[in-house]
Sequence to fold (124 residues):
Amino acid sequence: MTPTFDRLLDLAQTEVQIAIDALPDELRPAAESVPVILEPSPNAGYVTDGIAPDTLGLFLGESMADPPSSHPQPTQIILFLENLWRFAEHDKAIYLDEVRTTYLHELGHYFGFDEDDLEERGLE
Fold:
């Protein structure tokens, strides 16, 4: 049975907070400064812009490694909860693990890690 979006939302919010709380003290303030947006799946605008409909998460904005821009996009992490639930094959434990992993993956982009750096850290 698929939980309601509100239930997926509650579970994801708790798991993201647990992930933030587990970060080293020197990284936690930066992580807490990045808004985490929780949506069911990529909207039509994202899909039109080339984001795959089954994307699990997305980092938008400037990373800490980027030079400041005169037209920055607001920095944010978006997690697509219904996609994460489907990816987890409707298993709550796997869902929670994927929420955490996807959040940390996108947070890694904020910290300036590329895909190879994330893979080395087990966040692919």
